[in-house]
Amino acid sequence: xxxxxxxxxxxxxxxxxxxxxxxxxxxxxxxxxxxxxxxxxxxxxxxxxxxxxxxxxxxxxxxxxxxxxxxxxxxxxxxxxxxxxxxxxxxxxxxxxxxxxxxxxxxxxxxxxxxxxxxxxxxxxxxxxxxxxxxxxxxxxxxxxxxxxxxxxxxx
Length: 156
What we know:
By secondary structure, the chain is α/β, with parallel strands linked by helices. 40% of the residues lie in helices and 20% in strands.
């Protein structure tokens, strides 16, 4: 079901009115303890994407993340974690790809992905309610993988 929805939205994902960077608030700093607390307290499945404005592969998956977060906004929590970046770079990236539909946090030293068992960017983590890791996808995520993993989260 989600595969068809995401596939039909893939063309629309490449367009959209971006917000000016000045309209994007600075990202809240985060660390592994804060992420662990956030994940353990949520009662919804969570997709946590690790990205950086300087990461070319992150740019290619950004439209898919925007569309998936819009499609599943009522059932899945989406969180972006910007790593080893600048606030200006992060805010410009969010504005360029119109990613202000879900929360983004700022991990300047890049400690969050390592604490979750991943390294590099992009990374996409799929968590069950309460914070149990269901799947980690390293590298650019595609529509099929996103849909399959969201379906898995929603079946739990």
